[in-house]
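This part of the workshop introduces the protein records we will be handling. A record pairs a protein's sequence with a compact description of its fold. Comparing a sequence with its tokens is the quickest way to learn the format. The record below serves as our worked example for the rest of this section:
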Amino acid sequence: MMMLRIASIIVFCVLLSEARKLDDDARVNYGEFWKEFQEFIKWKRTKQPSEHNIEFLTRATGFDDDRDAQETSNRATQNDLPPKDQTALVARYVVNQADWAAVATISIRKDVETFPVANLISISDGPTGNGTGIPYMYLTPLDYTAQDLAKDHRATLLVSLAQGSYCKDKNWDPMDPRCARVMLSGKIIAVKNDTTEHETAKQLFFGRHPKLENMPADHGFFFAKLKISAIALLNNFGGPKYISVEDYFHPPVNNIADELNERFFTKLVSNKLILSN
């Protein structure tokens, strides 16, 4: 946040300097310019990540069980996604939208022992629009995914916007690279009982999957999370982008100077904030 403030002040000073050079006879409405600049900074701050949580403007279409909400979300546009070049934010967005993921583990089944096998699991990184980035899950030892993980914790989760109607509404095949998908690799570990994180996982998971709270008690369900070590995002043509774990949890703010220049200096040039004599 401090870096954003410093960068903002520097860029603002540069833009004012450039504005004065445009026309010696022009009279610039600096009050209006400063007001819009402050509004931009206020907006920008709302997009900065906290320790893990990131708020998003809207949810992608096709994930909401509430039909009225889904009809509203169906009118969302591609701009609901963060810009394509903000890869860490895009990855966080896709994970936050997902109610489930495909999980690949190393099988211990005798017929396919040591083969990678896939399963479907419900996940949640938090409320829609305010995710932590950490995929929590609710597993049972009766399922072969948990059995595989008991021997080898390594796993990969695949989440995609093809999960709902978002890509279909744009006539994008699930393999279309513009239909954003993220692969998160790491180790799935159990969340210890009687810890603050266990209570957090419970709230975040059941907040998205309330019906799973009533699973049979004798099935031994437990909360787990993916400890992420590698992230690959495909959200456009040109191949996957690889995102560091640090950037994933603390997405950098890119091109703030370009944003400010596009938002304000262009206005000055176009005489929206310059009053000629």
